[in-house]
Design brief:
By secondary structure, this protein is mainly β. It has helices at about 55-75, 225, 275-295, and strands spanning about 10-15, 15-25, 35, 35-40, 80-85, 90-100, 100-110, 120-130, 135-140, 145-150, 150-155, 165-170, 175-180, 210, 230, 235-240, 250-255, 265, 270. It has two domains: about 10-75 and about 275-295, no CATH class; about 80-270, Immunoglobulin-like (Sandwich), CATH 2.60.40. A six-stranded antiparallel sheet has the order 9-16-7-6-5-19, with no helix packed on it. It starts with 7 loop residues before the first strand and ends in a 5-residue tail after the last helix.
């Protein structure tokens, strides 16, 4: 790179909102707007407050660092929301994320214990969405293999929509929405995700295709376990939203086990999500830019 062509951070703007950050090779001088990049002294970001000897380039980098920090903050807001809970030897998580125009829900049985009786199997998750919107069932895909006793029935990535149901407008555990593989006196055949009925009656029933734990031994358990298909240890659901969806609208998560509401259940609490790789890259660029601003020319 030539000495007269130092790297230049350009902040792309659209409707006054930061969209992304790109690094251009050539220095653009002046206060003009070029290809949507505001690079002049009147860019809407804080000016450098160091000494009067600060160069225009350093001032631009300072504003770029500010924009990077803002972009990191905006990206973090869109990160998946994770709820986790446990009770005794039972443990579960559910994550909510936006994938295009769809709400992705990943339900997992994270216990390390063996599933020996139906009340050890995770059958449902209930959650509240502000405004009680009706979401469209799109798909339900197994995250692990499905077993019938010690026999492997199908592998991860199998469509299991015919065995899982979604319903809103509920009033259960202070939640208005739920996803379940068991009827629980709530879910019926018309509430199922797209997919063929893989086992048993058309209505969600018993512990069929419920979630066994990550530490389950498929060869052990009572007749109510060994005689039913169990998926180990997660299912991925997609629900289409009718409008932009705010993940912060989700609350009051409850994990349900067994085939009856009177069986084991416990609440989930929000855990801060791990930043996505793109967020970490932006954070690193922001720190590097800020460090460069702090240097004074010799």
């Amino acid at each position: 790179m030539d000495a007269e062509d130092p790297p230049k951070a350009i902040v792309l703007l659209s409707e006054r909102r930061v969209r992304s950050v790109t690094v251009f090779r050539h220095l653009i001088r002046g206060g003009e707007v070029i290809e949507g990049a505001w690079v002049g002294p009147h860019a809407p970001y804080p000016r450098c407050t160091c000494s009067a000897t600060c160069s225009p380039m350093r001032s631009i980098v300072f504003r770029s660092a500010s924009a990077l920090c803002l972009a990191v903050s905006m990206n973090a807001v869109a990160a998946p929301v994770l709820f986790t809970g446990s009770s005794g030897g039972l443990a579960a998580t559910v994550s909510f994320d936006i994938v295009g125009s769809q709400l992705q829900v990943v339900l997992s049985n994270t216990s390390t214990g063996d599933v020996l009786v139906p009340s050890d199997a995770l059958t449902a998750v209930f959650f509240n969405i502000a405004g009680n919107p009706l979401l469209t069932r799109n798909s339900a895909i197994s995250g692990g293999p499905t077993y019938l006793g010690s026999t492997n029935v199908s592998g991860a990535g199998t469509v299991v929509g015919g065995e899982w149901a979604y319903l809103n407008g509920l009033s259960q555990y202070s939640a208005n929405s739920g996803i379940s593989s068991s009827g629980l006196g709530i879910f019926g055949p018309g509430d199922r995700f797209p997919g063929v009925n893989l086992s048993g009656p058309t209505s969600p029933n018993g512990v069929e295709y419920a979630l066994a734990s990550a530490g389950d031994n498929p060869a052990t358990g009572n007749a109510g376990i060994l005689g039913e298909e169990l998926t180990k240890a997660s299912v991925n659901f997609l629900l289409t939203t009718a409008s932009p969806f705010d993940l912060s609208a989700i609350s009051n998560v409850t994990f349900q086990y067994g085939t009856d509401l009177s069986e084991g259940h416990f609440s989930g609490s929000t855990r801060r999500s791990v930043p996505e790789p793109g967020t970490l890259v932006l954070a690193g660029l922001a720190l590097m830019a800020a460090a460069g601003v702090g240097r004074r020319p010799r």
